[in-house]
Each structure stands twice: as C-alpha cells, then as structure tokens.
Amino acid sequence: MGEGRGELETLTQQTLADRLRDEFVGKPIGEPYEARDPVSLPMIRSWCDAMGDRNPVYSDEERARESIHGGIVAPPTMLQRWTMKGLSNEGPPQAGGLGSRLVEALEGAGFTSVVATNCEQEYTRYLRPGDHLTGTTIIKAVSDEKKTALGSGHFIESQITWTDQTGETVGTQMFRIYYYKQAEKQPSSTAPRPRPAISDDTRFFWEGASGKELLVQRCTSCATLRHPPRPMCANCRSLEWEPAPMSGRGSVYSFVVHHHPPVPGFDLPFVVALVELEEGVRMVSNLTGVTPEEVSIGMPVEAEFVPVDDELTLPLFAPRSAG
Amino acid sequence: MTEAFTAAEVLAGTKLPTMEVPISARTVIMGASASRDWQTQHHDHAWAVERAGTRDIFLNTPTQAGWIERYLTDWTGPRGRLGRLRFRMRSSVYPGQTLTFQGVVAEVTIDDAGTTWADLDIDLTVDGETVTECAARIAIPKDDDDNPWAKDAGSWKP
User: What is the pTM of this model?
Assistant: First the structure.
C-alpha cells in the first residue's frame, strides 16, 4: 500500500487549475537553459558508481577506445542530468524544473510537496565528453485538483527537449509530477484513550478497576445484580444498592470487529465484545490478547486490568482456558 | 560472454535474469547526488516525514532510469543501445526495501533502417508489489557483425 499515487477522486473546485492552464500551458518555462558544464568523464563515472553500471564504454577509456565508439560515451539515461542545477540550487530554472512562477503559484496555494509519477525519455543521439547541452521546457498540461493517498494536488506534465552545441536535438523527455498538500494525519494509537464520563452512579466502577476489582451494583433489597450502573433496581424499584465484586470470569456473548474509521487511542482492527459474567450480568468491553479472527461466541474470557496510562486502568477481557 | 549477445537468442517471452538492489539511505542519496537532484525529499529524512508526509526519503526518478538502463545493458552487453524508456512510478521506494527488477521481451522487430529492436516490459517490485512499471525499447545486435551504435542520425529511429 504505502503512499499510493492513484487518482481517487476529482474535486469540483477548478479555479486554480484553470488559472494555471491559462498562464502556463503550451508555453516554455523561461529561456532555454544552458548546462553549466559540458558532458564530462568524472560526472559519467559518478553516475556509474551510483547505478552500479560497469558497462566499459561508459567508464573504461581503454576499452571504450577499442570499441566502436573510439572513446567514452555517456549513459543515455544521464540526459536530464546535464542540465540540472548545481547543488546550490540557484540560478535560472533548470530543464525539468517548472520555473519559479509556476512553483510559487502552486506553493502559494499550499501544494508544497512533490513526487514524480511518469517519465518518458527518447535518446536521439548518444553523447560524448565535451558535448554541451541546452534544455527547453514546455508545460504541456495541468490537471484539475485530484485527491490521492498522499493528499490533494495537481499533476503537471512538462516536455523537455535537449539540443547540443550545434542546435541539433539529442533527446526528449516527458515528465509528469504531482504537487500536493500533505493529507491530514490519521488518528494514531499514540493518542490517549478516551476518558470515561464518571458520575456519582459510575464512580465506584472506575475506582474498583483502578484497584483491580471488577464491581457491579447489587440491590440491597432483593440482591439482583445490574450493569451498567443506574439508580434504580429494575426488579424491585429500590434505590438502595452496594458494589459487589465479581470473579471476572465470563464468556463472549456477542462481539463486533471495528475496522474503520480510525479511532484515537485504538489500534485497528479491534474487538468490542459483550461479555456475560458467570454471575449473570453482561458487560461491554474490548478483548485483548486475541486477534479478531480468533474470537468466537461463547469463548471463555477473564477480566484483565490494563493500566493504559497514569490516570486510567481499564477492565478488558482476555481469553482463558475453559473450566 | 556478453560480447556474443545477439538477437538470435532473443524471442518474445524471453525473460531477463532477475536483479535485486537493496535500498539504503546511502543508495538513495548517492543516486540523487549523481543525478545532481538536490530536491529535499531525496536526502533529508526529517523533511520527507514532516513536510512531505512520506515515510522516509525516497528514490528519485533519474536513479530509477539509471538502474533500468543498467539492468538492460547488463543483459545485452555493451552493444545494446537504449532507444526509449517509459515508466510509471506507482509508489515510492524507501530505504530498507529491496527493489527487484524483472523483465520480459514483449516483441522483437526490425525497422526499415535495419535496426533490431527488443521491446520489453520491466517490472520493479518491492515484496511482490509493483512500484514502477516500465516499457523499454533497446536496439540489439542482429548478429556478430551488427552494432546498433553504428547507426547515424538518419538511420537511428527510436
């Protein structure tokens, strides 16, 4: 999966794209850009080092001299490299660059990140040390605003033509790049768990959990257990109750697996289970120590008190051996 | 011997030997430097993660082109002459991954200037998933006496 670049959706807002098309498409970016240096052996050798390319006609002067070339030639795929800027990244737009006005327009609209998506090169003539290239870039297309896994942005297509010192074309390149604004970060499991809403009715339950005790309400009139906490007994309508400790043992009465959307504080997917305690009351919680595929109805489980951070201990349920 | 490589042994369906390149930060930056591509996402980890939202720095386009060329000429030997590369980068390639190159000959043709062309489909994968798909066109020697590099401007038609 990773950072996919597929186009997922076309947005309706097109004003920036229209404006960029009017201003830039079909026009060259700046003046033709003359390479700072001619094609040279040291640069060819650096390239071959980086690519692990041991083709002798690129870097072995003696063998290249004996070959049909009578001397070193440059790897065809170095084409664009000759008109790249120096490492200071200063000066006029390089061939392949979009030029400052287009880049500023995109960055000004928040599209500050860039990836390349398509490249098509054609090698008309091979190059030798001493050849001196000039590149001319024309913007061919600006897409409407698109949405990809990286974020929303615009695809920009450019066409570069390189000529040599005599003005003859030596190669061409179509380059498609994607200027985008980073997608909003997904909520991650590093976020804190949501806090329980604690009331006078529920405080005993959370205090019990922090002391590793699983407590539910027991009516002091008729001894009926109830959960979740509420003021009145459904059996005898008494308002009197006391907290009663449970064994913590039970079984999965029902469950769902949450796959989407992401929830802060949770790793996806997670299991939400309705656990029936052996004392008879049912309790909603998460299962732990088990994958969603392994969960089944009736699975024996046991309470586990998980301190999720300094303030909060949660009673979760983990599988136990039956019996 | 690569010198003896000729079109006689190349047919549609011929598979190229698989090439594997382990990717590290060093290989990413070395490729960026060799292609004089000083865009931040190809050398600055913190910037790539925080500003671009990618998981790490990633391979630049010229390095992918350079490796595809090497993959082809490792197969053809020095008489192979690259005419055209078209590739689509579906997802980025990061340090820690191993990039696997696999290629198959789609078609072998001879043009009206007598050049023998092999058209190939090249698949760059990481853990079995395609990250870059490429169509390449490379001239190969028809026989021991032929050399595509001898074609002059008038007879070279990539």
Answer: 0.68
